[in-house]
Amino acid sequence: MMSLLIINVEAHSLAIFQAIAEYLSHDLPYKLSPDDAFVTSGCTQAIDVALSMLARVPNLLNFVAFRHLEVRHFDLDAVEALADHNTAAMVIVNPGNPCGNVYTYQHLKKIAETAKRLKILVIADEVYGLLAFGANPFVLMGVFGSVVPVLTLGSLSK
Ligand SMILES: Cc1ncc(COP(=O)(O)O)c(C=O)c1O
User: Fold this and answer.
1) Is the pTM value of this prediction over 0.85?
2) Which atom of ligand 1 is nearest to 44's Cα?
3) In the predicted model, what is the mean pLDDT of residues 35-41?
4) Which UniProt key words apply to this protein (predicted)?
C-alpha cells in the first residue's frame, strides 16, 4: 500500500511524514507508516511523477511521457477486455470533477477486484475527498489497500 499526499511546502522533516501517515490512517483499516507518504508540489506534480514512473521515462518531470499514454473511456464491466500488456494502472477521480459523483463502497470494491485480477495499480485522485456532500459517503480507495496496491493522491489546494 502506498499513499501520496501532496502539500505545497518543502518537507524534509520526519514529523511531517508521520503526521501525514497518521492523518490518512484515520479512515483506513490499517496503519500507514511515514515511508508510505510522499510530498510533491500540488497534486498536478504527483500525477506527473506517478504517470512518468509507470511510463518508465527516466526524467520524472518530462511531460513527453504523457504523450505515450493512451486515454480510454470505459465501463468498468468492459475494462478487462480493454486491458492489455501495456496496461499499468487504473486511474479514478473520486469525488469526480466536474460532476461531483461519489463512488459507493461496492463500486470501489469492484474496481479493486478488477485491478487485482489485472495485476495493476489503482491511482486514486481524491483531492476532493473532504468536499463530498451527497447521499454517498466518501470512501478512501485505500480501504482496499489489502486487495490491490493503491496510490492515493491528495492536495491541500482544495
Ligand atoms: C481532480 C483534480 N485533481 C488534481 C487537481 C490538481 O491539484 P493541485 O492544484 O494540487 O495541483 C485538480 C485541479 O483542480 C483536480 O480537479
Assistant:
1) no
2) 11
3) 90
4) Aminotransferase, Transferase
